[in-house]
Amino acid sequence: MNQPTASLEARNLVKEFRLRNGLKFSTLQAVKDVSFTLEAGRTIALVGESGSGKSTIARMIAKLETPTSGDILLDGSPSGTRGRALAAYRGDVQMVFQDPFASLNPFHSIEHHLERPIRIHHPELSRAEVRDRVLSLLERVRLTPATQFAERRPHELSGGQRQRVAIARALAPGARFIVADEPVSMLDVSIRLGVLNLLAALQREERLGVLYITHDLATARHFSDEILVMYRGEIVERGPADAVILDPQHDYTKRLLEAAADPERLGALRDEVRSAG
Amino acid sequence: MPEPHTAVDEAVVDRTPADTFAAPIGITSAVPDTGRAEAEAAKRGIRRRMPKLTLKLASGLVLVVGITLFGIIAPFFTQSPTFSGNPSLQPPSADHWLGTTKLGYDVFAQLAQGTRGSLLIGIVAGSIALVLSVLFGVLAGYLGNWSDEILSLVTNIMLVIPGLPLVMVIATYVPGRSWLLVAIVLGITAWAGPAVVLRAQSRSLRAREYVAASRVAGERAHRVILVEILPNLLPLLTAQFLFAIIFAILGEAGLSYLGLGPTGSITWGTMLNDAQTGQAIGTGAWWWFVPPGLMIALLGAGLSLINFSIDEIINPKLRIAPEYTRRVRKAAREGRGVAVEGSIA
Predict the structure, then answer these.
(1) Is residue B20 part of a domain?
(2) Domains plus CATH for chain A?
(3) Distance from CA of A161 to the nearest CA of B (A)
(4) pLDDT tens digits for B23-38?
(5) Are A173 and B217 inside 8 Å of each other by CB?
(6) Whole-angstrom Cα distance, residue B29 to residue B130?
(7) The CATH number of the domain where B197 resides is what?
(8) Per the confidence metrics, is the pTM higher than 0.80?
(9) A85 → chain B, closest CA residue
(10) Do B218 and A117 touch (CB under 8 A)?
(11) What pLDDT band is residue B40 in, cutting at 50, 70 and 90?
């Protein structure tokens, strides 16, 4: 787990969607030539507005979408696209989804959600060993008493608790890299920090590489080593977190920073809105 | 500028107040026997998916279970439905509870045997329709792309072929029609409509994040369909199955009435056909055609009532509507109503 070369690399990723409007087809370039390297133990934040292509990148890395061109390399070698190679890749790279109310199947218990990835990636384990792992995962995401949380169903949990389950599920196969697609945007502001800090603590314990996708610059700076700013499918600015926030170069980054809520500017914003209305 | 709250100590990973608040009561007490707790959790999960026992559901169940039991048990205690030694066209009496037919058959015996025949056809045809609609609908919805195009094409073709004429054509071409053949023919003409609904529903379920999440976890396609998608389609499938049974029994009755029903077995439809060819209406022998007709109506009503109760699970708005009307009415009676004619959303 502590190999120095452990890395997840996106090289020249391009994703085009074919849109049909009646008989006419047009092409939408959702992601244009994006490259970055995520190393074990580090966090990269991917920041951008809705529709900037950041979730498409997440889905491509989670192998839910196939890139139009470009490669995803794990530890320097091309990643599998099907069969056993894909299964091995999924054991290493996992995803935490945005909406904890939609990402857990209402029909199944929490135990089912954690047990399946363990069974799939570690078929050699006995029933009791799988159960032990499920319980220890729940304890690692601070859902205790684990035996009681295991048998509950998603609707019996709060949003923050569900997102912890989703994080545990991503860790279940023994993943080394985690793609977190806006993991706290659907949660109440009061519990966001708890979930983010949990993710950060787990990352330190396991030396996980985390791709943190967000539109919130504040948490991006707080949580990540490097920030990539995306705009219309392209990375317009990249660099160490503090440098990007404190000394933005690109116009779009500057606008993004201005749009962020700033207590000192609240009055100005109100005047602006009122005069416009 | 970053918001000030980001300065909070990172090491504080513990539960936030909101999470603690959401923790259910009773968890803090001593850990109970896990086996029992698990059984209770399972029971709770199943019960949540069951419709509540309302008058609607109860009367539907009584009708359907009653008719089914009648079809299973009664034939063992009646005389042979094809024994023609009785006096013909007798009205109901102590000897023949529902009278006799023109050929001297006992109507009660025929009804008992006919119930069995009709139910068998209904269940077999319903099952065939269910399997085919799941196969075409769910697969088309889940797989998408070319598979979807092909499966939808077949579904749409089956949808626009008028069912009863096709059944009649098939039925006339086959000389000896067993009840099984009639059931199969009815089954393969009834699946297209439900398949369209299932396709739409599973397309929507497929786009849910938990399906994507199970794919990321490494689940194979067949497990995603069977374990993640199908359970969430269960209420819909049950409703469609019950509806397919009604459809098949009515279809069989229609076919039999036209003389295209199963040869050599007795169903409600063949009884009606016999009554019609025996001029039961002309001779005033109501006991010959009323019982099978009534049975069809009662079974249809019973299955529909169960279906309504299932609909209320699928669409909770339906469940609220009667309660809402009641409340509006009550408020109006007490003189604090909003409007005289309350409309329901």
Answers:
(1) no
(2) 7-260 (3.40.50.300)
(3) 7
(4) 343 333 344 444 454 4
(5) yes
(6) 47
(7) 1.10.3720.10
(8) no
(9) B218
(10) yes
(11) low
